[in-house]
Amino acid sequence: MSDKAESSDAPADWALTDEHEEKISFSAVAPVNVQVRHLNVQVVPPIYRGLFKRQAAVDEEKASPKLILTDINADFPPGSITGIIGSSGSGKTTFLNVLSHRMRSSNLKITGQPLYNESPSLSTVTHAYVTQTDVLLPTLTVRETLMYAAELRLPASVNREQRKRLVEEVIMELGLKECANTTVGDGFRRRGCSGGERRRVSVGIQLLGSPSLIYLDEPTTGLDSTSAYNLVKTLKSIAGKGRTIILSIHQPSPGIFFMLDRVALLAQGQMVYTGRVDEVMPWFETLLPPLPPHVNPADYLINAAAIDVRTVEAELESLARVQNLTNAWKGEAARRFADTKSPNIAPTDDYEVDVPRSGNAPIQRTARALVSRTFKTSFRDPLGLITSWIEAALMGISVGLVFLQLPESSSGIRSREAALYTAVGLQGYLMAMFEVYRLCVIEMPVFDREHGEGVVGVVPWLLSYRFSHFFLEDIIVPFVYSATTYWMMNLAHSAIRFFLYFAVVFLCHIASVTFAGVAVAVSRDLATASLVANLSYTLHTFACGFFIQADSIPIWLRWTKWISHLFYGFTALVFNEFHDRFYDCPSGDARTDAQCISYRGDFIIRSLAVPRPDNWRTIPLVAMLGFSVGYFLISMFILFAKKVDITMLGQKKNVETKEKRLELPSQKISKVQLIDVGLRNYSLRIHNRGSKTITVLDGINTDFEANKVNVILGPSGSGKSSLLNLMAQRLQSTWRTTYEADGQLLLNGVAADGNLVQSLCSYVTQDDDALLPYLTVRETLRFAAGLRLPQSWSKEDKIRKADEVLDKMGLRDCADTLVGGELKKGISGGEKRRVSIAIQVLTEPQILILDEFSSGLDAFNAASVMSVLTQLASEGRTIITSIHQGSWQLFKDFGNILLLAKGGRVAYSGPGTDMLGYFASIGFKCPATTNPADFALDVVAIDLREESMEKKTREKVHILTDAFKSKKQVERSFEGKLPPSELKKYEKRMPSIFTSLPLLIRRGWLGFKRQPEVPNARFFNPLGLGIVSAIYFSPLGFDYVDVQNRIGCLNEILPLYFVGLLVNVAVYPTERDIFYREYEDGAYSTEAFISAYTLLEIPSEILAAAMFASLAAIATNLKRSIAFFFITSLNALSHSRESLGIIFNTFFSQQGGLALNVANVLLSVSTFMAGLMSIDQPGFFKGLNRISPLGYAVKNLTPYSFRGQTFACTDAQRLPDGRCIISTGEDVLAIYNLEEIDAALNLGAIVVTVVVYRLIAYAILKLAKTRFRIRRKL
């Protein structure tokens, strides 16, 4: 870190030196030499098999193969650090993924293979990979995160004290001292470390394993120039100890570039140069013009190897230049690599995918660390911890109240059977679905990362996960449910029977959650895993003996009861409750009166087909324990055998000609008004529950002028993002986090309302999460244009504007490539960044705010974006952007600069041209050869790596901030500029629903076609339930046993509500989060969103309902008539179940697991109240039944299906007088108190509840964004 030069008269140059030496005490490692010869990677777009036909990855047009890497040759010797550079989309990340054997996509064609010490197997060497995105546990502190990483990665020879010392050394070396005890956070829902700090934590995790070979994908993303330099310096020192380090880097400063030992330059997937850094410039001397003075060599090379697609002329010129460079290197590569050993060329099918090695840590320590980590993260997230407890308590109380003090009558017996099924079947189902959600969303991403790194094995993870949750919920949840329900329901008064009841519920819970693990092992996608779990659980439910009498299951399916843990659980509870019990017979004593046979417990046990009516206790308990072990072993086997597949998406054929680019207009959206944005004593404090208040911004006074690009500089954690979020009105307090803001925001010198500021500005956030993965870049911009541009524009004008911006942002080459996501790779990270910026640039806002616009961009594309921003500023717009690494080329376009130090304190504010003169005047002179942006960041940086340097640099920063505080501020004039009251007419107008709704429907339809998980979830869940109903119930007969089976068949229509909720949980949260972002941008209204969601839902609902009704109602012979088919379809069509999902997933937007559990409990209670499971329920629940669509479903389906039916019985089922216990459908309706129900009226009520529930969902969504505000002190 730099020291201030001593000065008497004229200030000396600021000394840009760093005398710090890396002090991490790593152990010695075996050297690794990496060689790559003739490596080629081609992507063949995946073909998804839809429900009715094959469909390509993109739309109607056939997707074309895409070459990612072509004939790559390179050497990475031990003891070296190599930087892979190139423009966005040049193949840097793909090259790293292939080198690290992370590519496991079935649609890749790879020839050539890297060698590691002359072996094709990467598993022969210790290696680590730092991904481009940070996968961290947000509730752990930085120190805890690194300590657990050390526990999981370091070998047995490293004791606890050595591990702690190593962690502290990494914290100091990476400059994480100040945030060591800060929770990591996720930058979205949980605030904590800054993006740059999280990036360094990710690097630190991998360094702790002391690997021989380290891959890093864009490790400096989000870091300021000083932090980036220090990080690479640390890596350089580590490489000097015999390690091989390979990193991709998008915009290296000169200091970083010349710190590298070797460099590999890529252009459009082809190697342009690879070799020593000190030889790179001599190589290009004869191929390129001379390097201009003060130009960063890395920027110069990246620009030379980039394709400029902004104009036809520039594209042709750059293509010719890159082709010349590529051809020159091909000849040189043939000479350089001719004498070295080349690996065998292998086709894709033979490309080796290494099974990651288990970590070097002992299995006992690994398991102990995982258990400790799970306990800690659980207790740090109290709502997440008690979600399952809440479910058990709510479900227990609800079931207890619905079945409160059951009488010992005929209806009481039937209600007891339903209550016993609920204890194992329904309660187990709810916990299984919650476990699927928790594993898919929370647990598996971390496991997949650590398992893929060879750190955590499958067995230790499974054992530790189950062990930790055994104490957190596996005992608590069944006990809370059992203790609550058993005595409330008036089951057998016996302590022994209660403990047997608890034992069965406990074992069924264990079986259900381990069963959920199998579903998630099959697929990490929540929609697919839910589909697998739901359909499989449905099979268990049908075979258990409650809905259909076990001995009446078709003979060819009867064996399925023996492989259903629910069958053992349900029959065990039946035996436990009814064995040696007698109930109140109205005509006599059940013990002696033959007329009262149906009131004898043993008769009930036999009627429910319990295998051993005399003794059925031990066998079911042992069987359920065996099922739990079996599910555990199956999930273990699948996790071992099935790897997470990374799919590379292809490119859609471009049918547009280049000549069309010449027709693009330069139409302006609205008249530009000069708006100067001022901040006066602008402060922000954050208060997290259970912790102290943190000052993020401390009395900022600054001005951002129109006609200029206003830049905010500062080290990681200085409050840049917080300032922009506060200015753009994007901060919202939650129950966990409260924001307190002071000061004023001025527009043209007058205090302005926050809503006005929000309506005048567009905001580019630091992440690119608002991009839809199933759209191409061109489609993304065209939809954005359709939603954001003035309604007065024609469709053609909007399309031309979108294509104009697409060209300006240099996105022509990837215009027809899908955006993609984490597991389905599409465009590169830098290209995503430019798409996010392009969406906001489209609207040409009066004020444009950008958070780290150059993050992930190479020098060429950063300069291209800056030129667009400069053009917008020259039109009179106000551009405000933060930036973490500003090159010399970018600095020339900086208008005003706000320089922030740690703690949100101002070190400088004013014109960029005056900054160096100001610092020179207070004794900090920038050397003539130093990039001014790097200099500014260096002078305000605090070096935390050593105590002496920390003290010195803190004193320096205090001098800077105090000096600027005492500087006299220049009074500004706003003559000729409009006050806020007159700026309102320039606010962005949200489009009408008639404009936005058709676009949202079309966009949603593309998502439906291109994401097979969505139609699969919507179609196959109800279709699967209908098929299972048909094969188990078909054909229903007309005897005494079939009465129970018909009631069971009707009961199995009700689970469609759970299916709808599961689909909503899998689909809606992503749609909701994107809606929130686009709503804040003013893209469309809540009404448009909810209408589009509903209209897109209807066709699939109609089709699924018709398929279900034809199977569950007609095929089963419940009642074969056209009228009953449509009645069943209407009941199955009910949208109220998805409305319920919208309500709870909006209300509990930060706790999806809690939303799922509460909604499931509510649906469960509605199922009990519906009238088929609980006949004698309290009057309060009968009242609640009036707002339940399930109650109305039972009250129309049951009368329609039973009226006019007659039933026979066997001699054994007859009463002594020869009568059947039940002889007509009316007898059945009388038992369930449904004989006088108006079925048609209740069918109409179904339609009313659909509308009412969706209106409630709309109201909740409408209120969601205005629920919490920032607390302001005036």
TrEMBL record:
It is found in: Membrane. PROSITE patterns: ABC_TRANSPORTER_1, ABC_TRANSPORTER_2. It holds the Pfam family ABC_tran. It is a multi-pass membrane protein. Keywords: ATP-binding, Hydrolase, Membrane, Nucleotide-binding, Transmembrane, Transmembrane helix, Transport. It comes from the Eukaryota. Residues 36-293, 672-928 form the ABC transporter domain. SMART domains: AAA. One of its GO terms (cellular component) is membrane. One of its GO terms (molecular function) is ABC-type transporter activity. The chain crosses the membrane at residues 383-406, 418-437, 467-487, 499-523, 535-557, 621-641, 1019-1041, 1053-1070, 1154-1175, 1239-1261. This is p-loop containing nucleoside triphosphate hydrolase protein. It comes from Cylindrobasidium torrendii FP15055 ss-10. The lineage of its organism: Eukaryota, Fungi, Dikarya, Basidiomycota, Agaricomycotina.
